[in-house]
Amino acid sequence: MPPFVLTLVVPVFNEAEAIAPFIETVTRVFNGQTTVNIEFVFINDGSTDSTLDRLLASQRGDTRIRIVDLSRNFGKEAALTAGLHVACGDAVVPIDADLQDPPELIPEMIEKWRQGNEVVLARRIDRQSDSWGKRASARWFYRLHNWISQPKLPDNVGDFRLMDRRVVEAIKELGESRRFMKGLFAWVGFRTAYIDYVRPPRETGSTKFNGWKLWNLALEGVTSFSTAPLRIWTYIGFFVALISFVFALFIMIKVLVIGRDVPGYASLMVVISFLGGIQIMGIGIIGEYLGRAYMESKRRPVFLIRQIYEPGQIMALRQKDFSGN
Ligand code: UDP
Ligand code: MG
Predict the structure, then answer these.
(1) Beta strand 36-44 pairing with 4-12
(2) Of all atoms in ligand 1, which is nearest to the CA of residue 14?
(3) Tens of pLDDT along 50-75?
(4) 48 occurs within a structural domain
(5) Residue 11 in contact with ligand 1 by CB distance below 6 A
(6) C-beta atoms surrounding 286 within 10 Å
(7) Domain that holds residue 39
(8) Which one, 72, 74, 116, 174, has the greatest CB density within 10 A?
């Protein structure tokens, strides 16, 4: 087997405690493997704790570690994008720093990659480590997303996966600035294989994704890959109009047969408020897309780099070379 470079792209946001155990675990997993040259690309996503100091400390005496320091917190999707732009490996694995994506799986992924697969997905067969609410909302999100969006997202697959250099190049080509990585990963296609694993609980620290952040991520996912929520209003509008028409006919016939009705204040209020609600919802959904089109039209870079720390030297690269587009 010829030697090759494997890049681990690790977005970190306030993960000071996780850095050392993560590097140790990876080192242990690849101990004695001579064909795999590991490259760590840590993306410091605007951490406010000592994450950057810990990273720089780990880098001293470890030439495998490269650090990309973003100018602020851009979010995990942008941090991953930054990492993919900087990664040099023949194969690239985005992985969380908290050891919830077990590095022990990577040799198995490499095996599958060697057999000619360009993407190797790690599928969670058991999410007991996630809360009930998170599992339920994830299940519903995938169901809704895959119902209305193309291409389908594979079930229970996170960002943890191995990608061939060709896949990474393809993803770098995608110009959108609002990035839902799971969707983009699925969109590019390529020959794909799976391995299954049980997702362990977090080793240190706490999750950076609260309910509101997850909701927004889900909204991003659906609106990035489907226009069904926009189009559905045509049908809802038609359906409501149809019902109103039938109702009007009904009233007219009733007046002709029975005579004048008692003025229906209550039913009028119900119809008006119901239609009002539907209209506002429709406008809201149009707003979601309009907002996204607006943000997209600005063509701002996805992330800004303050500095890239290369092992053994400190090099300030101009961000224009690495801005997302
Ligand atoms: N992360 C990041 N920027 C953010 C939020 C999270 O880079 O704004 C990183 C975080 O440091 C971790 C990974 O993304 O390495 C996954 O985050 P977390 O473990 O909190 O997510 P969960 O596993 O709970 O879904
Ligand atoms: Mg985690």
Answers:
(1) parallel
(2) 11
(3) 999 999 989 988 889 999 999 999 98
(4) yes
(5) yes
(6) 13
(7) 4-210+300-322
(8) 74
